[in-house]
Amino acid sequence: MDRKRFPLLRLPIVVLTEILQIMTCVELFSFSLCSKKTKNIGKLGSKQSPTVDVNFDWRDFHFRLGNGISITMRFGSYDVLKKRGNNLVSEFVTISGNDSESIGLFAPNTKPIQWINHLRNLFGIQTIIRLNISNELFIPDSILNALSGLKIEALAITHRDPKPAFMEGISEVLIAEQLMKQYSKSVTALLGRRFPSLFLLGRGQVTMDEILICNCEHLHLLETSLTDKDINRLLKLWMRNVITDLRSIYLTNTTRKEAFDQYMILDGISYDQLFKAKFGLAFSHSPGKQHVHIYKTRPLP
Amino acid sequence: MSSTEQGTSSAAPAEPTTAPESAAAPEVPESFYYVHGKDKVVHKVSAGALQHSALIHGMISNLGYTEEQAKANPFPFENIDGDILQMVVDWCNQHKGKPTPPEDTNLPKQKEKLFDLVLAVNYLEIKELLTYCCKQVAMMVKGKSPEEIREIWMIPTDAEDEAAEKEAKKRAGKEAAGETAAAAGDAK
Question: Where is the composition biased (Basic and acidic residues) (chain B) (predicted)?
């Protein structure tokens, strides 16, 4: 035996499990990257965390595991992003935990999907509480494919404006912009999936046709640019049970200059109760009962 | 067999005549047991200290040894090095009848000793000491990268694992071939 090192894998499995369970998520993650064997053994140490809140933000992954532990993966930094072939790659990835420990890994040709799958297998994630994809580098379709088989309770897809500074002056901007142009197509594909709640922060990218094929119970259209007429049409179709599974709609108008026109929206709509609040619009619909919540609207004449 | 009566000094305060609290409530004299490791050096340990080891505690309960019988038949732990057993006995004596603190800084810092200690402690089923040892092992890789972890914990790379697997298969194949040849020879 090498006298200066510790042959961990020669320990009995009970002891090995206890050691791995003492380790933090970040340490466990580092350990799992040592080899294929440690990737499998690492599962012994992952505490029960059947649910996870995932946020694919800007250049980071934020994983908040069900047991209160969070992991953030940061892909490089703006000044080290380089063009390699047609891909944007980062020179390293940093992984940090909620107790401010972190490790930096050199990982050229880093593929976010690989990391998602690695974390998913290591921590035995079964349910995603909320999935937020807000970075053009993380393509919604490929992320959702990587997460297939997992239960997703809520989904948010956003993109940021203005464009990220590091994209200026490099050809990948075109790819990103093309992706943005294809964005509504991606949403159409996503809407076919079954979600209890769907958050769409599309800045006007979501069309009426896409909403009509929506297959979720609670729809959140944040930053919508639907016109008052569109909303009225949507409500009428909804009340006529054209959209069968939808139970509630929530709309906010942060991208619109003018407030929602309550008169136009509710034209021809029958409702049981009308609630007033500060922002946006919320409609809930149950068999034989409709509740309309009006937020920050122009007053009825 | 060489014999050094370790642990007697730490056991002394438990004697009815020397313990200050014994005046208030006379205690039953503490019984002692004997253990030895690979080096055959016998260590005398009080029953109270041995309570930490679920294995030895179970052996004592099942065997129902008297002190004379215990002296004549020390528990043999041939798979544990003498110095490691000494460490374990010392720890048991230090923590006899005391609540175990959350941290223990007296554990060996040398990795090879710690490895042997972990194996011994796991074998003797000393739960608290095993937890301390496991914490110490986990601390080795605090803030380390996968490459450093691989180095510290002697984790083979995928290529090394594959090579070892191939080698093992080859060896198993050779052994199987040897066995069939021997069986055929026996049949003749």
Answer: 165-177
Q: Which domain holds residue A159?
A: 48-298
In this complex, do B118 and A31 lie within 8 Å of one another by their Cβ atoms?
Answer: no
Domain membership flag for residue A230: yes
Residue at B30 is within a domain: yes
Among A187-196, B77-86, B174-183, the least confident range:
A187-196
Residue A238 lies in a domain: yes
Cβ contact A6–B111 (<8 Å): yes
> Residue A7 is nearest to which of B115, B140, B143, comparing CB atoms?
B115
Residues of chain A neighbouring B145 (CB-CB closer than 8 A): 30, 103-105
Residue B138: its chain A contacts at CB < 8 A?
19, 22-23, 27
Interface test with B, best of A9, A19, A36 (most B CBs within 10 A): A19
Residue B150 within any structural domain of the chain:
no
Can you give A133-178 as a three-state secondary structure string? ECCCCCCHHHHHHHCCCCEECEEEEECCCCCCHHHCCCCHHHHHHH
Query: Mean pLDDT, to the nearest integer, of A278-282?
Result: 63
Angle between helices B111-124 and B127-139 (to 10 degrees): 150
Q: Is residue A239 in a domain?
A: yes
Q: Compare all CA atoms of chain B with the CA of A32 and give the residue at the minimum distance.
A: B146
Report the CATH number that the domain containing residue B42 is assigned in CATH. 3.30.710.10
A-chain CB neighbours of B128 within 8 Å are none
ipTM greater than 0.85: no
Total domain count for chain A?
Answer: 1
- Asked if residues A125 and A119 have their Cβ atoms less than 8 Å apart, the reply is yes
State the pTM of this model: 0.64
Which SS3 state, helix, strand or coil, does residue A21 take?
Answer: helix
> Per this entry, what is the length of chain A?
301
Confirm or reject contact between B150 and chain A (CB < 8 A).
Answer: yes
Boundaries of domain holding B10: 3-140
A6/B142 touch (CB, cutoff 8 Å), yes or no: no
Q: Which class for B99: exposed (0-12), middle (13-18), buried (19 or more C-beta within 10 A)?
A: exposed
Give the pLDDT band of residue B2 (cuts 50, 70, 90): very low
In a domain, B123, yes or no: yes
Residue B183 lies in a domain: no
Give tens-digit pLDDT for B62-88.
877 777 777 788 888 888 998 899 988
The pLDDT of A56-75, averaged and rounded, is 66
